[in-house]
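Deviation from plan, reported transparently: adenosine-5'-triphosphate complex.
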Amino acid sequence: MSTVESNPVESDFLASLLAPAAQTAEGHDLWLKARRASALERASALSVPTTRDEDWRFTDLSMLYRLKLKAADAGGQVDSAILTTLMFPEATTRLVFVDGHFDRSASSIAQEEKVRVGNLEQALRDSAWRSTLGEVESRLATVARVEHDVFAAANTAFLREAAIVHVAAGAQLGDTPIQVINVATGHATGSNPRVLVVAGQGSGCTVIEDYVAVGGSAYFTNSVCEIAIGPDAEVHHIKLQREADTAFHIANTTVLMQDNSRYRNWSVGVGGRISRHNLHVVQDGTGIDCDMHGLAMISGRQLADTHSSVDHALPYGASRQVHKTIAGGSAHAVFNGKILVREGAQQTNSSQQSRNLLLSQRAKVDTKPQLEIFADDVKCAHGATVGQIAADEVFYLKSRGLSETAARNLLTYAFAKEVVEHIPVASVIAVLENHILEQTRTKEA
Amino acid sequence: MIKDNASEVLKVQGLTATVDNREILCGIDLSVRAGEVHAIMGPNGSGKSTFAKVLVGHPAYEVTGGMVRFDDADLLELSPEDRARRGVFLGFQYPVEVPGVTNGGFLRLAYNTVQSARGKEELDPLEFDDFIREKMELLEMDPGFLERSLNAGFSGGEKKRNEILQMALLEPRLSILDETDSGLDIDALRIVANGVNQLHTSEDAIVLVTHYQRLLNYIEPDYVHVMENGRIIKTGDKGLALQLEDRGYDWVAQEYRERAA
Ligand SMILES: Nc1ncnc2c1ncn2[C@@H]1O[C@H](COP(=O)(O)OP(=O)(O)OP(=O)(O)O)[C@@H](O)[C@H]1O
Ligand SMILES: [Mg+2]
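Because the crystal trials were delayed, the predicted structure below was used instead.
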């Protein structure tokens, strides 16, 4: 991001984005206060990106910059029956944030000795958390790239309420996921959701980071998710972006991995007028393994941009990535996948596939692998394809009675399935399957 | 079987069709009544598959003339899916592979779509599972094929068997089986032919496209037609197939040319 003078619309936007930060409740925690202050300073010094920035070439945020931001002291009202429909039954532990504010009554937290789940603001005052706060302090706002990213910095300037998941060394949560739901009601037009996951040595957990809308107007979600995975630990991370089609969604995910740890990511985005997901995985140890499954399914005038990077810093690392996009209408999908293999990262094994399906003539996709390899004994494979639904397949299905729409839906789902089918939470698969089939039904053309 | 008072399922008159402005079907006449089995034979490239695909509304072909009636409907006016729902079925010579679509899921969707269009009962996944397994037994198919992607990586013979499985599910009024026998081993041919015979009643009709007499030993045709250059140039009974096996096609073509002259 450049630091040259930006135009008034952009600088006004940044100013209004940061303005409420000054009013963020003080609290007693000096370290947190200091982190907010330095983030605010950093954000103020940076400028918001434009299409002149190489990393934002295809993603024009000028519509976002014209949005009048309105923060809210509390979240809007959400019908509890509607909330229930958004919950995944497998996730008995859930944190609910409405318009960026923690909703205690909608949340369900089972406190266990080895697993701490809660809202940062309360955790800081809760004696049960005392032994884990040291690690929270060392990870919060240090894993994310606050220094270089204006949006991550802006989010951090508000850091007060945040979903914290702390899994103690050796604790295995098995197949029971933890769901963090961020609900947008349209009550506020800007929110800064925040998630921190700390997985102790040899632990295992599954976290669903979920963005949903119950209100329809234009709003801005600026989220940051930090995941610190200790040695030999394994984290499954499912990010669902089901914002309103009018929303702007900018998400920064940073994963910091230690020796022999494992990270499995599923990122599915179906909403947002403009959405951007920066997914950075840093392999800061040896023998680390990660896989990432991305899916963006958009139509109408939506734009979905994923920029990922995997940083292989030390030997014996592996990464596998499949990113799929499905674009209908005049939607635009963007993927930039960087693989960095540093000099010391010998024996790295990495693969990246970008697969894109265009459902209409006007839809488009820009996909770019970005391999930066400085070690000589590595395996790095990558490939990209752009295709359409095969007419002979559609006809074959129609010849068995399926309508044109049903046939295309089925083939679209077949394309997406590779990403969706191994998500370790069955009800998430069911929701996505429905969504994908519905999406093509209602938004064909 | 031929019955005098059987209703006419399919009537084709003067059907012509082109692909890329080249005429492939040059005036086909055919009448098929309920209960009957017809065989269409003829040299490679004579238009047999094109005829079959035109009947199910394949978009690659443009119908340029003639008419096709299916029961009381103008078949050419119907969309491919409506033809299927009303009971026209084509077992393809080259079934399409559809990676990612689970065979079992697809079969249930097709079955339920057709059932609901016919005002009949749909089946939930459990009920369907029992139902499909029964049909698979008839064709001696391994239930493992339900879990696989539709036709993807199926051997030639497995694809053909899967086509007949679909026929068994969809209970067509008119089944057109395009070279179902090619690709089937000797045992499979017998099994599939038995299956077809069991499915066939006096209420439906079957059109077999084949190159070989062998299939016709199992599924006995009431009529045998010879197609050449996009026309049916001779029609006979099952004896004609034996003659063709013996003498090839040249004499039929010659006879046709002499008659035409
Ligand atoms: N989609 C198409 N595009 C171009 N040519 C076609 C197409 N379909 C059929 N043809 C041509 O039409 C002619 C008839 O083909 P068709 O497949 O109907 O023959 P067939 O009688 O089924 O032959 P076979 O016994 O080899 O299966 C051939 O010359 C073929 O090349
Ligand atoms: Mg053929």
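The radius of gyration of chain A is 21 Å. We consider this an acceptable substitute for the interim report.
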